[in-house]
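ok so i was messing around last nite and threw this chain in just to see what happens. nothing serious, just curious
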Amino acid sequence: MSNEIKDSLTARQAERDPNFMLSLARGLEVLNAFTPQRQRLTISQLSQKTQISRAAVRRCLYTLAALGMVHTPDGRTYELLPRVLAVGHAYLAGTPLAKAAQHTLDTLGEQLNESCSAATLDGDNVLYIARTAVNNLLSIDLGRGSRLPAWATSMGRVLLSALPEEQLEVTLSRASLIRYTPHTLCDKDSLRAEIARVRIQGYALADRQIEVGLCSLAVPLLSRSGQIVAAMNVGVPASSMDARALKEKALDPLRRAAMELSLQL
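result:
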């Protein structure tokens, strides 16, 4: 779909609903285009990622820069400023799920002496809502508010396994299957099969999928009604522990922690 077509569709939506703010929707799309992997983006790149016209992206960036949320260090590329954290801080710090998950992860991390995280699904990404870091396993710093592509992570695959088939197909059709490491599962058919396996077995193992040095294991976090609302994982250095050893060490404690946390929701 071209930028012009999507802009036209969004504009028609705004015309149908007088309460819909087209400019706000575009600004939020521009903010969401920045990721830990792509922290600096040009107007052209943002236009391509958001499917918003370059002229509209330029106006969004001008406004966001005036509000102190983005800046351009070289006059060509743009990056986020710390002020954007205020947008999501109230949610990430204040929701019962995030608070309870942080306490559970602190306990689990101390028990296993490994890094543990919790995340929810945010579009095509996982959104970290809590984390306790024992080892620095990634080339990027992760914390509350960090996002990673769902298809390439253990928590993401758990969350994707809960989607209806039609929604899963739409999500996978949008995904850019980047080969982050030589071991990254980039074939969509193989990825579908892996997600189906995760759905059946109730956990996901991601062995050196997004970083050569990371092996992670994730399980679902259920609400009292039995719906998957988040995922929890344990990550270890791949050089010191393979996927089988990680499963033997962490699967039972991780499941117990997720069950105990579910009872608090």
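not much to say yet. The longest strand covers residues 228-237.
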